[in-house]
Write a structure and sequence with these properties.
5% strand, 5-stranded mixed β-sheet, single chain, mainly alpha, Heat Shock Protein 90
C-alpha cells in the first residue's frame, strides 16, 4: 500500500522514475503498466508514459503511434481531460514537424475537450500553441487573439509567470504585425509583472523584443539600452549570451553609426552561433548580414548573406522533409486503414454468412419443434373443444328456458311501470290544472275586491269631495283641492284598470288574442301612447296557461314602459314557429342602460319566473340604430308535463 502511494505521488508530479525491481526504461515501464489490471491509476500513468515515449521518438510515425494509444485509453474512459491532453500533444507534434494547419485542427479539438473538462492548464497549453501556429503562418491577427486568450486564462489562475510569458509572445506578435506601440506597451507590462517575481528566465526575452521593436522604430538609444539589459539577463540565466541577441546588438550599433561596437558584437555572435538552433542561426545570420552591410564591410556582408541563404534553404528543406514525412505517414495510415477496413469487411461478410447459416438451421429446427408441439396442442385443444361444445349445448338449453321466463317477467314489469308512469303524468297534469284554476279564482277574487271595495271607496271619496263648496276657499286651497280630486280620480281609474285586467273575462272565454286586442283598445283611449298589435290572422293559443302567463308578462311590460320609457309608440307582435309562440314588445323610448340589464327589478324577475315555468325564454335588447327596447318572450307550443 505504501509503495502504491509513493508511486501515485511520483506520477502526479509528472516524474516517472523507473522502479528498480520492475522497469529501468520507458518501454519497460510501459510494458509493466500494460500488464497491470485496469484502473484509473494504470490508465493515467500509461497516457503520460505514451506521451513521454512520443516526445523521444525519432520519426513522426512513432510519435503519433504512441499518442494514439493514449488517445484510445482516454476515449474508452470518456475522459474529457485526457482527450484534451492527447489531442494537444498530437497537435504539438504536427507543429514541430511544420504542419501548422494539421496542428491547429488537433489543438482546437483539445480546446473543446479542455473546456468540457474545465481544465484550465490544457486550455492554456492549446491556445499558446495555436498562437505559435498562426505566427508561423504569419497570420498575426489570429496569433494576437490566441495569446490574449492565454493571458485571460492565466489571470483567472493568478499565474504571474505564465501571464508574463504570454505577454512577451503577444508583444512579439504585435511587433511582427507592425503595431510597435501596442508591442512596447504590453512588453513593459510584462516587465512590471517580473519585478514582483524573485527570478524570471523570461525577462531576457522581454528585453530582447523591446530592443527589436525600438530598432524597427529607429529609436537606437532605447534599442541598445534594452539589448544590453537582455544581454545581462542572458548571462545571469544561461551563463552565456544568445547569438541572435548579439547579432541584434551588432545591427543596432551599425545602424546607429557605431562600427566598433557593431563589429565587437558581430564577432561574439559568430563565436556563439554554433550553440543555437537552425532557426535562430538563420535569424542571427540575417542580422549579421545587415550589420556588416550597414558599416560598409561588403565582403563580410556578402559572406553572411550567403550563409543566411544557405541556412534558410536548409531550414526550408528540413521543413519540407518534415511535411513529406507527415504526408507519407498520412498516406501509409490511410493505406493501413483501407487494408484493415477491407479485412474487417471480409470478416464481417464471412461472419454474416456463417451466422445466417446457423440461424437458418436454428430456424428450421425451431419450426420442426414448433410444428410437432403445435400438432400435440391441436389434438388436445380439439378434445377440449368437443367437451366445451357439449357443455355449451347444455348451458344453451338452460339459458333458453331462463330467457323465456325472464322475457315474460320483463314485459310484465314494463307494463306495470308504463301504467304507473301514465297515472303519475295524469295526476301531475291534474295538479297543474288545479293550481292554475286556483290562481285564476284567486285573481277573480282580488279583482272583485279591488272593484267592489276599493273602487267603491274611492268613488265615494271623490263624490264627497265634489260636493264641497269652493266659494270660501282661497286660490291656493282651490289648487290643492283640484290636485287631490285629480289624484283620487287617477287612483280610481288605476283600480278599475287593474281589476278589469287582472283576469279579464275575455281572456278566460275567448283567449289571448281577443284579450290583447281589448287591452290595446283600452290603452289607446287613455292617450298616453299609441299601442299596436301585429299578428297573423290564423294564430290561436288553446293552452290557457300559456295565454295567461303571456298576458301577465305583457301587462308587466306595458306598466314598465308607461312608468319609465317615456315612449310614444309601442308595438306588440305575436307570431308562431314550428316549436314556439314568440311575443315581442317594442317601444321607441329612451332604452335601457346595458349595465342595468344584469340588475333585475321585481317586474323583470316576475317575467323571468313566468317564462321559466313554461320552459321558455326571456330576452331584452336595446336598439342600436334608433331609440327603444325590444323584449322577446318564447314559449314552447307543446308544454312538457312533469313526469315522476
Amino acid at each position: 500500500m505504501r509503495s502504491a502511494i509513493i508511486l501515485l505521488i511520483i506520477v502526479a508530479g509528472g516524474g516517472f522514475f523507473a522502479l528498480k525491481s520492475k522497469a529501468d526504461t520507458p518501454i519497460a515501464a510501459i510494458k509493466y503498466w500494460e500488464n497491470e489490471p485496469k484502473s484509473p491509476l494504470r490508465d493515467t500513468t500509461l497516457i503520460r508514459l505514451y506521451a513521454r515515449q512520443s516526445a523521444s521518438a525519432s520519426n513522426l510515425d512513432s510519435s503519433i503511434f504512441w499518442l494514439q494509444k493514449g488517445f484510445k485509453i482516454a476515449f474508452r474512459n470518456r475522459s474529457n481531460h485526457w482527450l484534451a491532453f492527447t489531442h494537444n500533444r498530437i497537435g504539438t507534434t504536427y507543429l514541430e514537424k511544420g504542419v501548422n494547419f494539421k496542428a491547429i485542427e488537433y489543438l482546437f479539438r483539445g480546446v473543446q475537450y479542455a473546456e468540457m473538462a474545465k481544465s484550465v492548464n490544457e486550455q492554456v497549453y492549446a491556445w499558446d500553441h495555436i498562437g505559435d501556429c498562426y505566427a508561423n503562418l504569419k497570420s498575426y491577427e489570429k496569433a494576437i487573439s490566441a495569446e490574449k486568450k492565454v493571458i485571460e486564462l492565466y489571470i483567472k489562475k493568478n499565474n504571474l509567470p505564465g501571464q508574463m510569458r504570454a505577454m512577451i509572445d503577444l508583444g512579439a506578435a504585435y511587433r511582427e504585425n507592425e503595431q510597435p506601440e501596442e508591442a512596447i506597451s504590453i512588453l513593459q507590462q510584462s516587465l512590471e509583472i517580473s519585478s514582483g517575481l524573485e527570478y524570471s528566465n523570461d525577462r531576457a526575452d522581454a528585453y530582447f523584443n523591446l530592443a527589436a521593436t525600438f530598432l524597427k522604430q529607429q529609436d537606437y538609444t532605447e534599442a541598445e539600452r534594452y539589448g544590453l539589459l537582455a544581454l545581462d539577463a542572458e548571462d545571469d540565466g544561461k551563463g552565456r549570451p544568445n547569438a541572435e541577441l548579439l547579432s541584434l546588438l551588432s545591427l543596432i550599433n551599425s545602424s546607429n553609426a557605431k562600427p566598433a561596437k557593431a563589429l565587437e558584437f558581430a564577432e561574439r555572435a559568430e563565436y556563439y552561433l554554433i550553440y543555437e538552433s537552425p532557426v535562430m542561426r538563420e535569424r542571427a545570420a540575417f542580422n549579421l548580414f545587415k550589420a556588416y552591410k550597414a558599416f560598409g564591410d561588403s565582403e563580410k556582408a556578402l559572406l553572411w548573406h550567403e550563409k543566411f541563404i544557405q541556412l534558410r534553404e536548409n531550414n526550408r528543406a528540413e521543413t519540407q522533409n518534415k511535411r513529406i514525412e507527415v504526408l507519407r505517414y498520412e498516406y501509409d495510415a490511410q493505406q493501413r486503414e483501407s487494408q484493415l477496413q477491407a479485412m474487417i469487411d471480409d470478416m464481417t461478410r464471412q461472419a454474416y454468412l456463417r451466422n445466417a447459416l446457423i440461424l437458418g438451421i436454428l430456424i428450421f429446427l425451431g419450426l420442426a419443434l414448433a410444428l410437432g408441439y403445435s400438432n400435440r396442442l391441436l389434438v388436445k385443444r380439439r378434445r377440449e373443444l368437443d367437451l366445451s361444445n357439449l357443455q355449451l349445448t347444455q348451458v344453451g338449453k338452460m339459458l333458453k328456458q331462463t330467457n323465456a321466463t325472464l322475457e315474460d317477467r320483463v314485459a310484465a314489469r314494463t307494463n306495470e311501470l308504463r301504467v304507473a308512469n301514465h297515472n303519475l303524468t295524469r295526476k301531475n297534469h291534474e295538479i297543474q290544472e288545479a293550481l292554475f284554476r286556483g290562481q285564476s279564482i284567486e285573481r277573480e277574487r282580488v279583482a272583485s275586491e279591488l272593484h267592489n271595495n276599493l273602487g267603491s271607496l274611492l268613488s265615494g271619496v271623490k263624490w264627497r269631495l265634489e260636493s264641497v263648496e269652493l266659494e270660501s276657499f282661497t286660490p291656493d286651497e282651490k289648487k290643492q283641492y283640484q290636485s287631490v280630486v285629480s289624484l283620487i280620480t287617477d287612483a280610481y281609474n288605476q283600480v278599475r284598470h287593474i281589476s278589469h285586467n287582472l283576469l279579464p273575462s275575455i281572456l278566460e272565454k275567448q283567449g289571448l288574442v281577443p284579450a290583447l286586442e281589448k287591452l290595446i283598445a283600452d290603452l289607446n283611449r287613455s292617450g298616453r301612447a299609441t299601442f299596436e298589435l301585429v299578428r297573423p290572422e290564423d294564430i290561436t293559443i288553446n293552452d290557457k296557461r300559456i295565454s295567461f302567463e303571456l298576458y301577465s308578462c305583457v301587462l308587466e311590460l306595458i306598466n314598465n314602459i308607461l312608468k319609465h320609457a317615456n315612449a310614444s309608440h309601442v308595438a306588440i307582435e305575436l307570431v308562431k314557429t314550428d316549436l314556439y309562440f314568440v311575443l315581442m314588445v317594442t317601444d321607441d323610448g329612451h332604452g335601457i342602460d346595458q349595465e342595468k340589464l344584469f340588475v333585475s327589478g321585481k317586474g323583470l324577475e316576475n317575467i323571468r319566473q313566468r317564462m321559466n315555468s313554461l320552459n321558455g325564454s326571456f330576452a331584452i335588447r336595446s336598439l342600436r340604430n334608433r331609440k327603444g327596447t325590444t323584449v322577446t318572450l318564447r314559449a314552447p307550443r307543446k308544454q312538457q308535463r312533469t313526469e315522476v
